Amino acid sequence: MLFFHLIYAFVVARAAALPGNSINDFDGCQNTREIVVDAAHVVGKFKNLQGTNNANTALVDDPNDIIDDMKPAIANLWPEYGIKHVLIYTFPSVFLGFGKNGTAGDATNNDNYNWTVTDQYIKFVTSRGAVASIQFNEADGTNSSISSPEILGQIGYMITDHAIELYDFYAESDLTNTPTIEEAYENSFKYFAAFARGVANASTKAGVVAWGSNRIVPTHANYSVYDPYISRFYADCAAQNVPIKAATYHFTNVQFSFDPYAVKTLTDRFREEILVPAGLPDLEVWVTEYEPNPSGALPTSASALASYNDPAWFAGFLLGTSMYAQDTSLTQALSWTGFGYGGYGAGHAYFQPWFSLTSNNKTVPLNAAAAWKLQASLVTNTSQRLDLQGSSPDGFAALAGESESGEIVQVMLNNYQLDYDIVHHISIHPQQHIPSSKIMDCSTENKPANTPVMLCLKYRVSNVLNQSRTSPLRTDTVCQIYVQATIRDNHSDSYRLLLNNLPWNSTDAYTLTIQRVGGGQLHQVYKTSHGVGNCVDITVPFPANAQDLVTI
Q1: Do 286 and 368 belong to one domain?
Q2: For a FRET experiment, which of 58, 153, 249, 265 has its CA 20 to 30 Å from that of 441?
Q3: CA distance 175 to 186
Q4: Are 24 and 134 contained in the same domain?
Q5: 165: exposed, middle or buried (C-beta count within 10 Å: 0-12, 13-18, 19+)?
Q6: Whole-angstrom distance, CA of residue 411 vs CA of residue 8
Q7: Are residues 281 and 236 in the same domain?
Q8: Keywords in UniProt for this one (predicted)?
Q9: Mean pLDDT value across residues 361-376
C-alpha cells in the first residue's frame, strides 16, 4: 500500500545534488541557491520566536505615540500565528502614592494601587493563550517622588502577578543625550536591584530584565566611545547576587544598513564580550524590540521611499531577523511595533503595519502577517529542526523542520533583498545623507576592520506619510553607538531544494505543495505536485522578498 505524507517546507538555503524526484519549473535559472536538507539528522528544537512587542497607548496619555494595537480583532489571531509571548509596551502606572507621606504613600498598602487598567491589559493577553511581559517604567525607577530603592522594591513585590513573565526595566534610559556618570549609575543600580529583589520575592516565575537599548555593542580597543557602565552593570548584578532574569536589548539596524543577520552578530558578541566576563555566561538574552528603522528618518527620493514602504520588503526584513535569531542564544525576540496596524512612535517615526483596516473595519493581513503565519507552522507543527546546508548571512535564509510524528517536513525560505537606494537616500534631514564611506559591502572577502561610530543626530521631523496623519514638529537628540554598518548583497532569483532521507519508505507516495507570500500576491498556492520516494529535487523561481512554504 502506498502512503501519502504531508511535508511543509518554508526554505531559504543552498545545497548539493541528491537523487530523487526532480521538479523543474523553468530552464536557465539565474542566481540559483542550492539548499540541501538531511531529514535523517535532527539537530535540535526550534524556538518559538513568534512573540510581539504589542504597542498600545490607548489608555496612556502620551501625545508622542499614535499606536493602538491592543485590539480584539488583532489579538484573536495570536493563537493561529503561534504568538505565546506579548510584551505590553505602555504598561500604566499603578501606584497612587508618589510624593505622599504616611498611609497614603505606603507602598505595601494595597489600597494605594489602582489595578483596573493593569488587570485589563494582562487578561487581554492571557485570555488568548499568551504570557505577558511589561516594559516597566514606573517613573523610570529613579523619580525623586520614590524616596528610596526600598519603596520601589515594595512596589515590585506588590504588582507582580504570576501571569507576568518579565519586567523590562529602565528600558530606554541610555538612549538619552549624555554618557552615564558615576553618581547616576550608582543611584539607578540601587533602584534596579531593589525592584528585582522585590519581584523575585513575590514570584519565582516572573523576573526583571535590563539593560534594554541600542548601546549594547561591547567595547574593545577599537570602541573608543562605548559606555563602560553596560559591562559594569552586569558585573555588579553577578557580584551582588541581584536576581536578573535576562539581558535585553533593542535590535535596530546599524547606520541604516537594514541587515537582519546583525541580530546574530550583536547577540553573539554581547554574550562573549559582556556577559561571560561579567560572570553571567548563561544569562538569557531577549530582544525586546526590533524593526527596520526606529528613527523617523525616511528616504528622500520617491523611488527609494516606495521601496521602503513596500510590504514585501518589510516582511523580508522581519522574517530574516526572526529566522537568523534561531541560530543565536536568544530566548525571545519581539518585533516592534509588533503584530498590528503600525503607526507613529515617539520621535514620530513611522512603523510599518502587519495588517490593514478596511473602511468596514475588516482586518486584512499584509505580507508580514501572512509570512509570520507560515513561520508559525514551521516552529509549531515541525518543531524538530533538521540539518540544512545553504542558508546564507546575505539575506537568503532557510530553515527545515520535521513533525514529531515523522509525517510532515517543512522548509522555510526567505529571499530578503535590499534596494540600495533606501540606504543612499535615507536621511535625518534632507541634506544629511548617510555617506557611502560608512557602508561596508559584505559580499567581498576583504572586509575592513570594524570601527566605532557614534551618531549624535539633532533632527527636526515633519513627515506626512499619508493623508490622514501628520507628524507634529519635534526637535530631539539621539546618541547611539554602532559597529561599522554592513550591507548584505543577495540577488537570488530562484532556488534548488534537495530533501534527502525523508522519514518514510522509498515506495511511499507524497504530495508536494508550495505556498508563497510575495511575488505580486499576498498569498497563493504556487505549486502542487505528487511523487513517490523519500528524496525530492525541485527548482523554483523565487522573487525578491518572497517567502515560500514547501509542503510535501
Answers
A1: yes
A2: 249
A3: 18
A4: no
A5: buried
A6: 6
A7: yes
A8: Signal
A9: 97
Read off the CATH number of the domain in which 96 is found: 3.20.20.80
Domain count within the chain: 3
Please give the angle made by the CA atoms of 212, 397 and 423, to the nearest 5 degrees.
65
Report d(CA 143, CA 188) in Å as an integer: 10
Are 525 and 514 in contact, with CB atoms under 8 Å apart?
Answer: yes
How far is residue 189's CA from residue 234's CA, in Å, rounded to a whole number? 10
Residue 451 DSSP class:
-
- Residue 21: name the closest of 455, 533, 495 by CA: 533
H-run or E-run covering 184? helix 182-202
Crossing angle for the helix pair 229-239 and 182-202, nearest 10 degrees? 40
Does pLDDT of 544 surpass 70?
A: yes
**pLDDT band for position 136 (50/70/90)?**
confident
Query: Nearest 5 degrees, angle CA 428-CA 429-CA 432?
Result: 85
Q: How far is the C-alpha of 237 from the C-alpha of 144, rounded, in Å?
A: 23
Binning pLDDT at 50, 70 and 90, where does residue 254 land? low
What is the domain extent for residue 406? Answer: 4-46+384-417+490-551
- Between CA 20 and CA 400 the distance in angstroms is 18
Q: Model pTM?
A: 0.84
Asked whether the beta carbons of 169 and 134 are under 8 A apart, the reply is: no
Return phi, psi of residue 400, to 5°. Answer: -135, 140
Q: Which three cell numbers stand for residue 528?
A: 502542487
Q: Which helix (H) or strand (E) holds 547?
A: strand 547-551
434 and 339 both lie in a single domain: no
